[in-house]
Structures are given as structure tokens and as C-alpha cells.
Amino acid sequence: MKHFQILMAAVILFASCKKKEEKKDETEETPTIDFVVAFGSCNMSQEPNPFWDDILAEKPNVWVWGGDIVYADTDDVDRLRTIYAMQDTVPGYAKLKKEVPIIGTWDDHDFGLNDGGAEFAIKAESQQVFLDFMGVPKESERRNREGVYAAHEYEVEAGKVKVIVLDTRYFRSELLKSEDTNKRYRPTMDSTATVLGSAQWQWLENELNESDADFNLIMSSIQVLSGEHGFESWGNFPLEVEKLENIIVRSGAKGVIILSGDRHISEFSKTAVSGLSYPLIDFTSSGLTHSYASFDGEPNQYRVGEVVSDKSYGIINLNIKKMEAEFKIMGDNGSVLQELKQSY
Fold first, then answer.
1. CATH domain 32-343 topology
2. Which H or E element spans position 205?
3. 261 beta partners
4. pTM of the predicted model as reported, rounded to 2 decimal places
5. pLDDT per residue as tens digits for the range 214-229
6. What highest taxon heads this organism's lineage (predicted)?
């Protein structure tokens, strides 16, 4: 009888320990995610995009187009409209569009001119076609101003997220050709050269100055921090990079994060900015239907981790209560190709 009692006590003790272990496991589950941002760029409507079902599975609060939504490269407005219409017929995208808010900006190929800027002859007409595709109401103020830039605010129980989408095409000054055969363009120190144009600059400054959001995400179709590669980037206009960083610092806006696309590669860039209490991160996600498969390296002094040259999209999980962000470069079927975490 005594042996039986000892055995039962051991069983009870084991069960008790197991329950405590199970309870401990429950407390170690993934931190709360208050807001999910999904984004991507470089998408050909006629090519298979394997990610739409994966993006839906992430349950994003918003999908942000980072530009090159379609590849039109045309000054024929009717052709441009037809190519956008093809994207709307893609079943996976149509399903996403029904279930998730869609916002975003354009880049050169949906703007209509490869590496194009302020000189593009039909930019005003192209803007209206873009706004039609994005479902912007005819009475919106965006219909009556130059450029496709806009700000969107989202409130959840934990707080507020603001997504600012920039237009790096409509007003952008001419690029300078590089004498280096390994690079396409070179930086200019001309103080009159611009990426955003004066009206958009003033608008951006106001949006950041007046923001009470916990996180402020800025979508720039072209990379902001990585500028040594000699392709398109804010690095071709270093004075404009400095101006952007100064505006962010002076605004006091919380949790500013930069998103970008264009390059057909995905990577994280990160830098310390004087006067900013947290690092500035530029998360590049590109491309959705085609990527720089033959990528064999390029300089980026701000890079964190490795370049992902496979097709991918971006996910940002925001924990507003703890002011933490989890950045993930995503492949097919929920695979995480690379990730980065940052406190703000």
C-alpha cells in the first residue's frame, strides 16, 4: 500500500510539472502583432505571381504597391489603361483586392517611361489612369494636383499607423549619366535638382510634423539608403537624402520606416541618423514576378544581412504597444527568406 501511495504521488507530481511546463510554453508564444503591412513591387500581370494566396494568409491590414505594378513603358494612354486592366483580372489579386485595402505608388514602368521623370510627356494623363486603377474617387483632391503622392492613416485598438506614399517620378530632375561603365548614373550636387519637387516636399514635411501615429511608414518606389550601385536611387541626389533625413529628425515623428522597391532584389539597409533616437531602416522588396536571378553582388554600406535575389514580397509586423517592428522578406508558401527586428 505504501509503495502504491508513493507511485501515485510521483504521478501527481509529474502531471503537475507537465501542466506548469505547458503553461510556460503558452506564455512564450509569438509577441502580439497589432498591425501587419504587406508590400511589394515589380509585377508583370502576364507572368505568374505565386504570392497572392500567401499574402492573404498573412492577414495584412493593408497591401502597399511599391511601384512597377505593371510593365507598360508606353506613352499610349489607351494601352496603359488596358495593361492595368489585365492586372485586375488576375484571380489572386482580385481576391486580395476584395479583402484587403490596397494603396501605393508608381515607379517608372507603370509611370510609362523607363527611368523616367519630370520630362515624360504624358505624365498628367498617366496619373489619371493610375488613380483609376487605385480606385481613387473622381472628386478626390488627388485628381486635381500633380503627382500621385498620398497619406493613409489606420487606427487599431493598440494605436495608429500612418503610411505615406511618395511620388519619385512626376517631379524628378534629370539623371546624370555615369562615365563609369559599371554604373548607369552618377550623383549630382546641384542644389536645384529634386526627387520630389517643392510642393510634395512641403506636403511631406507637414504630414510628418502633424503626425500623431505610433509608426510612420514612407513608401519610396526607389531606394533611399542604398546608392552606391549606380542605378536609380535617392543616392543620385545626395542633397535630397540629407533633406529627407533632416525633415524626419525635425518632425519628431515616431517610428519612421522607409519602404522601397524597383531593384528586382530584396534587402535591408540601416543607418544611424544624428538626432534620431532609433536607426533609419530602408526595407527594399522586389520583385514579385521576376527578380535579378543573376545577381552577383554590389556595394551597399548600409546593408544588414544578405541580398535576396529570389522573387519575394515584404511583411512588416508591428507591435505598437512595445514599439517593435519585425521585417520579413517572404518567399513562396510562407517561407521566410530573411528577417530583421528593431525596437523604436
1. Purple Acid Phosphatase; chain A, domain 2 (3.60.21)
2. helix 198-209
3. none
4. 0.91
5. 999 999 999 999 999 9
6. Bacteria
